[in-house]
Write a structure and sequence with these properties.
single chain
């Protein structure tokens, strides 16, 4: 078996170098030794948007994009979606093992007793206009939490680190619910410690006055499973943002607010909201072929939202589970009329060479919005429903970065393509 190494010959000098291969990678700093002369900085790797660059080792989530595999700490997502609960999966992602009953009870107690936010957070949120997008409200409120917990800066202290992580997981539903209630002009509903994580969230969204609110068990379980599916996804755009911002050793609230901002984008977590807008724009099953033709023509801005993925080059395993949940939810809420358009879009796209050649399949966002809408959420709230569970992945990945001896402040290089050195020109000598 040949050695795990590359032999590189630099044709500019005729020199040969041996670069070790570890974990299917080469360390790009090993390229720095390849120079034409002593003044040469040495070779770098160039990889805009990190299409083929690993920026960390991680033990949290494994994805095999070609085989449509997603595992949290080695457990297949399909088994977790069927047999586990969101808080149990949160414990798994944070600690690496499924909890015992005592561990789960203690974890649930901790989360349940950190759902309140400081009263001033309410006043802070009241400053937004009535039509503020809830993702903007959530992102800024999460960042503001760093002002309420100054001790969070001590990220090297394990106890301090963990309590901030618990607070973030516990308070995200409260902040999200307050943002929703602000947008509909209703009074905030305080957390109810008697309810489950998802049940409490639904109550804070929907409860009116002093009536007791009992979430529908099918809808409560459906949202719990959707939270499991959205909890982590290795080094996606928002997690990379959390790791990058966190690498400056800022507190976790500031780092996670960067993740919320990244998730807001329509190419990332904002896609579920964009899918509903796209289905509405299509309007009827008969219009699907015309829309597909527009997408294939590459007409500005017409992408098949909810399709495609940087890693999955086959069906997103989460989309399969979501499709099953959709049937269960529609049993209770009635079928979302946009579902037929979505199914027809999928049917055509999966057989059309344009999409097959580009390995474009439905991703996690293609069907989730249909379920959220059927459950009564408005489209601008869909990405908030993504941010709540993904907070678990963000804090788990953040802590892994903090504890990783190989990590330091993220500071990539660049290829400079600007003007060569030139002298300053006094104002009166400048020509148009
Ligand atoms: C999420 O990273 C994660 O893990 C993210 C996520 C998570 O859990 O964190 O899984 C959540 O963000 C899911 C993705 C949600 N986004 C969307 O559904 C938006 C629509 N999809 C895309 O814009 C796109 O597919 C991306 C952004 C998801 C991936 O883009 P890439 O990997 O940068 O691929 P690309 O843009 O280079 O596209 C490759 C080709 C291009 O065609 P050509 O230039 O070769 O002709 O495929 C085409 C693209 O034009 N293409 C699409 C398309 N996605 C890619 N064409 C039509 N419709 C699409 N959706």
């Amino acid at each position: 078996m040949p050695k795990d190494s590359l032999t590189i010959t630099d044709n500019r000098t005729g020199k040969t170098y041996e670069i070790p291969i570890e974990n299917g990678c080469i360390r790009t700093d090993a390229l720095r030794q390849i120079k034409v002369d002593e003044k040469d900085f040495g070779l770098m790797g160039y990889d805009p948007a990190f299409l083929n660059t690993a920026n960390t080792k991680s033990a949290i989530t494994f994805i095999d994009g070609d085989r449509g595999i997603l595992e949290y700490r080695g457990y297949p997502i399909e088994q977790l979606a069927e047999k586990s609960t969101f808080l149990e999966v949160a414990y798994l992602l944070l600690n690496g093992e499924l909890p015992t009953k005592e561990e789960l009870d203690e974890f649930t107690h901790t989360i349940t007793h950190h759902t309140y936010v400081h009263e001033n957070v309410k006043r802070f949120m009241e400053g937004f206009r009535y039509d503020a997008h809830p993702m903007s409200m959530v992102a800024s409120t999460v960042a503001a939490l760093s002002a309420f917990y100054p001790e969070a800066k001590n990220i090297k202290d394990a106890k301090i680190r963990r309590i901030q992580m618990m607070r973030l997981i516990a308070k995200m539903p409260t902040i999200a619910a307050f943002a929703y209630r602000h947008s509909v002009g209703q009074p905030y509903v305080y957390p109810d410690n008697e309810l489950s994580y998802v049940g409490n969230f639904l109550a804070m969204l929907k409860k009116i006055g002093t009536n007791t609110y009992k979430p529908h068990p099918v809808l409560e379980r459906a949202l719990d499973v959707l939270f499991i599916l959205h909890a982590d996804h290795e080094q996606n755009c928002s997690t990379t943002s959390v790791r990058t911002v966190g690498s400056s050793q800022v507190d976790p609230y500031s780092a996670v607010s960067a993740g919320v901002d990244a998730l807001y984008g329509p190419l990332h977590g904002g896609a579920n909201e964009a899918v509903l807008r796209m289905l509405r724009e299509i309007g009827h099953v008969s219009k699907v072929p015309e829309f597909i033709a527009k997408v294939k023509s590459g007409e500005a801005g017409s992408r098949l939202m909810g399709f495609g993925h940087r890693v999955y080059k086959s069906y997103d395993p989460r989309a399969k589970v979501i499709k099953r949940i959709a049937d269960e939810v529609f049993e209770v809420t009635g079928k979302n009329p946009l579902l037929d358009i979505a199914l027809e879009l999928e049917r055509i796209a999966l057989s059309d060479d344009y999409f097959v050649k580009r390995k474009l399949y439905p991703n996690v966002d293609f069907y989730s919005g249909l379920i959220y809408e059927a459950m009564g959420f408005s489209a601008d709230f869909f990405t908030v429903l993504f941010a709540i569970p993904r907070t678990v992945g963000w804090v788990a990945q953040w802590e892994e970065m903090v504890l990783d001896p190989e990590q330091k402040i993220a500071r990539p290089r660049q290829i400079y393509i600007g003007p060569k050195r030139r002298d300053f020109v006094p104002l009166e000598q400048r020509k148009k």
